[in-house]
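Onboarding guide, step 5: your first structure request.
Type a short instruction followed by the sequence, for example:

Predict the 3D structure of this protein.
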Amino acid sequence: MCEAAAGLAMNWLGLRLIGFRGWKAVLTWFARGTEKPSSGAAPTIQDSGQSIARLAESAARHLFFKTNCLEQSMALWWMLRRRGITAELYVGARKGGERFEAHAWVEYGGIALNDAHVEHGEFTPFDAPLVPMKAQTP
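The system replies with structure tokens like these:
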């Protein structure tokens, strides 16, 4: 729970100080080299990813400040990568009536791990994950 709270606080602050692009680069740099090859145990990895997502959601509910879906998703992605779980960070958008809405989530194996109460299929994801599975080197 401490790691999740620290990750949320770190993302909350990082996005405000550096902005999305800069903070994404920082997180990608810190996550590089931690990727472990999959042993073919996809259900076990999926279960681990969902457990970590529940832990991160619980930490977000108990913080003394409010975090949004982007901050929570970036924290979850970072926590997963620290464990060698290659997940992807997505942002999607939808228009409901006169409202434009955006949402961020993390997927592993095509399954959304966080925000189980949100219907991710209603959001059209941008062309590619914002943080791809394999970190791109400049």
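Each response can be followed by summary notes, for example: The radius of gyration is 14 Å.
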